[in-house]
Amino acid sequence: MKLIAKGNTAEIYEYGDNMICKLFYPKYPTEYIEHEFHNAAIAWKLGIRTPKAHKFIVVDERQGIIYDQIVGEVLSNKFVELNEPEYDEWVDKFVDFHKQLMQYSIDDAISYKDFLKMFAADEDTITKINALAEGNCFIHGDFHLENVIINESGQPVIIDMMNVCKGTKLYDVARTHFLLSYDKNIQSKYMKKMGYSVEDIMPYLDVIQVTRENEMKI
Fold first, then answer.
1. 9: how many CB neighbours lie within 10 A of its CB?
2. What digits encode the pLDDT tens for the residues 144-183?
3. Cα separation, 204 vs 44, whole angstroms
4. Number of helices and strands (H, E) in the chain?
5. Residue 218: is its pLDDT beyond 70?
6. Rounded distance, CA 45 to CA 104, Å?
7. Around Cβ 33, how many Cβ atoms within 10 Å?
8. Cβ distance 73 to 165 under 8 Å?
9. Please, what are the domains in the chain?
10. How far, rounded to the nearest angstrom, does the alpha carbon of residue 15 sit from its chain's CA centroid?
């Protein structure tokens, strides 16, 4: 198989015609791989524009998932050397796509509060998590420029379903705000176009910031 990309948890290889193999690194927990496959199936069933997950595979004792291949360009590449109108146009598309995803409701996914509790290190953090709002909105949990691909038709496609859960949209807005912290301009435009202030999401940011370190240890 031909290697085409690398990420924090897996490598991406070409796999036959119009498919890819997301091959996870050795010793990556099986339960998390199964969790991603389940989440991808949920998203596909809902009609979300995302690659279809077909099956599990094992290569040289490494586990993987076979997905449809999306031909296109990662959204982050669109922000290179743009003038301001073009820049704002792509931020608009990014925001509009996130709003579309949040219109979906799901029941058969883990609650975002239970997800956060897996990485909480103390009772104070758990108390803060319990105080947050409930909900059954589709939450991607990792919605940033590297996880959106613009396909050949110019449509955004979402990838990487590891952190999908259900809950309030404010949590997913907070996750994206946190993940965009490396670019204050895009971060600010994102929040303004989403219609939220940092104060609106602060209770969610608080717990994201204290659980993130443990989350990244997986």
1. 16
2. 999 999 999 999 999 999 999 999 999 999 999 999 999 9
3. 27
4. 7, 10
5. no
6. 11
7. 19
8. no
9. 3-68 (3.30.200.20), 72-215 (3.90.1200.10)
10. 23
